[in-house]
Design goal:
Elements lengths: L10 H11 L18 E4 L3 E4 L4 E6 L4 E7 L4 E4 L2 E2 L6 E6 L3 E6 L8 E9 L3 E19 L3 E4 L4 E10 L3 E6 L8 E2 L3 E4 L8 E8 L4 E16 L5 E3 L5 E10 L3 E6 L2 E3 L6 E6 L2 E6 L8 E9 L2 E11 L5 H14 L26 H15 L2
Parallel strand pairs: 1-10, 2-10, 11-17, 18-25
Antiparallel strand pairs: 3-8, 4-5, 4-9, 5-6, 7-8, 9-10, 10-12, 12-15, 13-14, 13-16, 16-17, 17-19, 19-23, 20-21, 20-24, 22-23, 24-25
Length: 375
């Protein structure tokens, strides 16, 4: 008889007890153990199956088989065509002289372990055991939430995942325009974080089955820094635009000043337009009083920065200034330096071809004719 110590029943004892219950051997006759030369026991190759899939357990039979059964670690699944298991996922596939096959659907972690096919022949019992290994795809169970920190803070991101085999963890910074880096650890340490390390961090958990990917966002707050502004020139009556650009997180608020006086929107024909990190001060009709020095101040909760720019006057050339410029050119030139164009009312002195003693007279004639053409 089979003797099993304490409360722990080995699979060998379970097989022997099950055979007795199934009347696979006559009552009162000793059941031979695995070490008995008249019994036969073999171990089949492990079966690896992914969680949620189905698995087939096949047991070879023979013409001399009288009784057969499939057992797991703690119970009988099938005894011949009779189903002993109450699990609806377990079903009979094939039972004939060649094989005895059952199927387990939607396999899960508790299904992992050893399964035994017990066969009784006319001469001796035979067992075959197989081990089911259940693989589970990785799943990220605990991930740090999106965070907002100030520049210079120490940051720790956490990514914990389950799976079988145990998944490996990889961190990667995805933000465009930033040098990405990778780290292989459940915890990602970022000491003294800078604005350049803000962005989207991707955690990937991967094993032999598949991969799971999730992301966490880091926002890094920092005080404004403004770009150097260019001075702008404009004539009276023209339109002019002063620009002020500031990098900041959270985005900066802008203020404009002329000397010590703050400028507000729609003030004396001036408009202020703030879009993201850019502020524009627009003059639709520049007047004399608009010329001068302007200061832009960018501010957020962490600090402020400023820059100055000058709106200066540009004088457009008039007809008198053009005439003065032309006279200056003629006085400085020689016969080889210029040509006098003919046109309606133009006068050409043949002697002007030689800019010698009569040069001054020729120039005077040309100037007088051009002045008369203005009227």
């Amino acid at each position: 008889m089979c003797v099993c110590g304490d409360l722990v029943v080995s699979w060998k004892c379970l097989v022997l007890l099950s055979l007795r219950l199934l009347f696979l051997v006559p009552a009162g006759l000793p059941v031979r153990s695995q070490g008995d030369p008249q019994s036969d026991s073999r171990v089949m190759d492990n079966i690896t199956v992914r969680q949620g899939e189905s698995v087939l357990l096949r047991c070879p039979q023979g013409n001399i088989v009288t009784h057969t059964a499939w057992l797991n670690r703690s119970s009988i699944l099938y005894a011949g065509e009779d189903k002993w298991s109450v699990d609806p996922r377990v079903s009979l596939v094939t039972l004939n002289q060649e094989e005895f096959t059952i199927k387990i659907e939607n396999v899960d972690i508790p299904d992992e372990g050893q399964y035994i096919c017990a066969v009784q022949t006319r001469s001796r019992p035979r067992t075959a055991s197989v081990h089911i290994i259940v693989q589970v795809p990785p799943k990220i169970m605990n991930l740090s939430k999106d965070i907002v920190v100030n520049e210079g803070s120490n940051v720790t991101l956490m990514c914990l995942a389950s799976g079988k085999p145990e998944p490996s963890i990889t961190w990667k910074l995805l933000s465009p325009g930033v040098n990405s880096f990778a780290s292989e650890d459940d915890y990602l340490e970022i000491p003294s974080i800078s604005r350049h390390k803000a962005g989207t961090y991707e955690c990937t958990a991967v094993n032999e089955v598949s991969a799971d990917v999730q992301t966490v966002e880091i926002v890094v707050n920092y005080p404004p820094s403004v770009s150097e502004s260019r001075d702008v020139g404009a004539s009276v009556g023209q339109q002019a635009v002063l620009h002020c650009e500031a990098e900041a997180e959270p985005p900066a608020d802008f203020e404009w000043y002329k000397d010590d006086k703050r400028i507000f929107n729609s003030f004396d024909g001036i408009e202020i337009d703030n879009t993201g990190r850019l502020s524009m001060l627009t003059f639709f009709n520049v007047s004399e009083v608009d010329y001068g020095n302007y200061t832009c101040i960018a501010t957020n909760k962490l600090g402020s920065a400023n820059t100055s720019t000058v709106l200066y006057e540009v004088i457009e050339p008039t007809s008198s200034t053009l005439l003065q410029d032309k006279t200056s050119v003629l006085e400085k030139g020689t016969s080889s330096d210029y040509t006098i164009w003919e046109g309606p009312g133009a006068v050409q002195d043949g002697n002007c071809g030689n800019m010698g003693a009569h040069a001054s007279l020729c120039l005077l004639v040309v100037i007088v004719v051009q002045l008369l053409l203005k009227f």
